[in-house]
Amino acid sequence: MYKIIEKRKLWFSISLIIILIGLGALAFKGLNLGIDFKGGTVITIKIGQEFNVEELRKSLEKYDTQIDVREIEGQEVTIRSNKITTEQVNQIFADVKAKYNLKDDALRSIDTIGPTIGQELRKSAIIATLLATIGILAYVTIRFELWSGLAAIVALIHDLLITLTVYAVLQIPVNSSFIAAMLTILGYSINDTIVVFDRIRENKKAGKYHDFETLADASITQTLARSINTVMTTLFTITAIYLLGVPAIKEFALPLIIGIVSGAYSSIFIATPLWVLFEKKAGQKVA
């Protein structure tokens, strides 16, 4: 049996250090908000022939080193940036037009996204996250008990903070797909935690263990192989999507990879030790 619970200070310290680094990065550098949140310009051009997205993106980096170039259906391309000026928009179209020998009608649209839309998106994301968190807390509390629900919620917040840390430290652009991925992480991470909590409940009913710490360690050990295999299988798929997918898919897959790894860690090293800690504070006994 693995002694996970007795080393909980070590697991908590590792997470706390990472989260503090993230909070420091957020305080000094903030998040690198993408066009969906910060506003900017979206240019849509019909290329009308096969083209290399990466090659086109590199040719446009002189306008913005983080310019976003995506191929869409119908051999069209969208060019997104929150740094280019009106004059640069015209120059970008002139460059693409010359590169692919296009006509003037190849320019499909030039859209400007204002910061107000970004504010509304941020507000909707916060509301969606709060509703999801309340729903998960209610579900876990009804299925198990209040302390396990609180432990599960702390573990989920831990996963979101770890993902934010990576984005803040590496200054990875944050767009709307990031929000979708964060909500997916909320749903996925709780599954791993539920597996461990279910085993704790089964072992508790069986009355095999007379203290909650031993009960939790035994339950984690019994579910460890299943948890690792499930995470590795999911990670293999998501990583393949990230490596082979188009930029829009990569934006969704990257936070998922971080969240799934963090979720597996928190289910074993954060959620269950926290539940044990809460039970001890409450003075409850196993049997």
Summarize the structure.
It is built from 9 helices and 4 strands; from the N terminus they run H-H-E-H-E-E-H-E-H-H-H-H-H.
Descriptors:
287 residues, alpha+beta, 4-stranded antiparallel sheet, 9 helices, 4 strands, 70% helix, elongated
**Measured on Cα atoms, how large is the radius of gyration?**
24 Å
Shape: elongated
Number of helices: 9
> Strand portion, in percent?
5-15%
State the secondary-structure class. Answer: alpha+beta
Helix content: over 70%
| Uncertain runs | none
This entry's quaternary arrangement is single chain
Extended strand count: 4
Major sheet: arrangement of strands: 2-3-1-4
- Distance N terminus to C terminus? 21 Å
Largest sheet: 4 strands, antiparallel
Average pLDDT confidence is 86
Order of helices and strands: HHEHEEHEHHHHH
What's the arrangement of secondary structure elements?
Layout: H1 8-28, H2 35-38, E1 40-46, H3 53-60, E2 68-72, E3 76-81, H4 86-100, E4 107-113, H5 115-143, H6 146-170, H7 176-206, H8 212-244, H9 247-282
Antiparallel strand pairs: 1-3, 1-4, 2-3
